[in-house]
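Hi R.,

As promised, here are both runs. First protein below:
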Amino acid sequence: MKNFWGILLLITIFVSCKEKHLSEPVKNEIAEVTKVVEKVAAKQFGFNLDNFKVKIDTVKRGDSFGELMLSHKVDYPKIARISQDFKDTFDVRRIRVGKPYMILQSKDTSETAQVFIYENDPINYTVVDLRDSVVAYKDRKEVKYVEREASGVIETSLSEAILEQGIDYNVTNNLSEVYAWTVDFFKLQKGDKFKVIYKEKYINDSIYAGAGPIEAAYFEHNGRTIYAFAYENDSLKSIVDYFDEEANNLRRTFLRAPLKFGRLSSRYNLKRRIRYYGNRVRPHRGTDYAAPVGTPILATADGTVTESTRRGGNGKYVKIRHNGTYSTQYLHMKKQKVRRGDYVRQGDVIGWIGMTGNTSGPHVCYRFWKNGRQVDPLREELPKAEPLAETLQPTYFEYIGPLKDQLDCIGYPEVPQEEENEDLLTLNQ
């Protein structure tokens, strides 16, 4: 998270001009979701805690489910049965360090574990009921959703703004994913703006449990305005896409870049001269994105891996054939995650940033083929995904009407007047 894109933004929660939002409670803090801080209530996870001796703890390094149960007087055959019969519900090998758990013990002198409750995340949990015949099942806490709005003007660093404003990082990450195909986040300009509507999740009305998906957004980049509305494009598969105010799909066949976080360090340039080689012209047919070693590299589109190997100056690399027209290649990896013949989906991690082959620093050299010829992906008009089906458009336009009005009604924070800075803002600046 420390190396996420350093887009320069000033971000703030802004209250809608709609009167109904004025009465909503304002979040005072972001709770540490993996830390159990609430007072033990009389009833939690569907159990009356007054009937048990309650132990609350987190998984420590070296802990295992078997050892925890043995230390709480659960016999080995019962532990073995849980491990074998309920692995689809609760895989005992996958308990993670730092995850909270609760053990409900008998109140008699034996203090034997009766129930084990493992918190998979702030909302979802798994119950292993050890009484009588063993039962394991998953459940979730009751969640309250509170609608929020945020707006921002590109001015200062996003990371600082998130810390200062208490905005969940996932809101910014989600916004970048909504516009990943239509906005080049490596070329944001000072003065670009955005607005977003989303919901925050709360447990027991007060414990913050994260931000939900973006419901509607507005982005103004280089004077171009782009609305985005979440809408179910395929009810049979529950596929939700983002569409603009004219029902055009914001998704493209290709992502703009193979990294979520990093910076554009060198562009495609057929006339590049390198001092090391006597200032001779050595064409650079790739686009370089610098990031720390170990940063995930993403497939920019669906396709089949045709090469996953190591060769000469390319170092470790992966090449993907997307269709009869397009192929992409990703060089200088530390390690590949895929093999030749694997089918990958857009956004899948295919390897990690490294320094193998001829490279002076950690980066991925991203190469893009069109009809067998390497081209500059930043200058290509990438093919769009299918628009919303015409049969769904009347209902869609009716649905987005109030959301568009709400977005238009959100104001921007005042930006302090400062001396002019460089117009071009890059990542990790």
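And here is the second one, sequence first, then its structure tokens:
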Amino acid sequence: MFRQYYSAFLDKIKYFLNIKENGIYIDCTFGNGNHSLEILKNLSRDGRLFSFDVDYESILINSKNINDTRLSIINSNFINIENYVRKIHLYRKINGIIFDLGISSWQLDSSNRGFSFSKDSPLDMRMNRNYGISAKNWINYAKKKDILYVIKKYGEERYARKITKKIILFRKKRKINSTGDLVNIIKSVVKNKLIKSCARVFQAIRIYINDELNILSKSLHYSYNVLATKGRLVVISFHSLEDRIVKNFIKSKSNLKSSLISGLPLTEKKINELCPIKMIDLGKYKSSIKDLNKNNRIRSAILRVAEKIN
């Protein structure tokens, strides 16, 4: 039996999404189900919620006690959001979309997924274990230069070169089979701040295995496409690589790229035609002390919210 964890910004979801009772919403990362349940609390019987999750095992475990006709759970990667919304004829009718990125507490606590470095388990790291290459297969057969690139780029780990060298030496003797093997390799290099280095290396491999940054970048654009006018986009990220993508996306949609001379007698409609602003950036938020007391795993969470205006 897994613990029920408090999700980041849970008590503020109604405010950030600006939930309308009869609105239509999408939770792109069902995970533990907390955000989906919070959205449902604020919907009338005419409201609708569509929740995506690529992890079928997570859906089975975390949705088994939910029986709500307003909720549809889709076992699919959120990169398919636009195709799905078009299929159900709700294009540009979605009032709000939330992404809670990263790993759910259920996945971290699972004994056979390989996401956590705090327990010894098979080195898998795939969000969907029926698709793609596992971390074990990748780390045992990838070229040295590719391993170095992944750890350095996606983990921003200062000891990336030394850790990569140790990985190559280790696998010459035997395969790297478990998270414990990988932790011991890192431990042989890093003498101080071992936990931070483990977190960075595990993050890097997981991001690469699941193509997370590329999928996020594309999915943000697809999400914007399906939002209704005045629809809200809420994204919770957990490291700088994700947050940078989210920030730059919102900025690209909300910047007023104009060479208009101040004081020109133009109507608001004409200004929008000449230099359209597509979103309003409604700000960046960090977890409160109250939230951290409920779940310390959300300490690095950053929330950004924007509103589509045309």
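A quick note on the second one: The chain is about 45% helix and 15% strand. Let me know what you think.

Best,
J.
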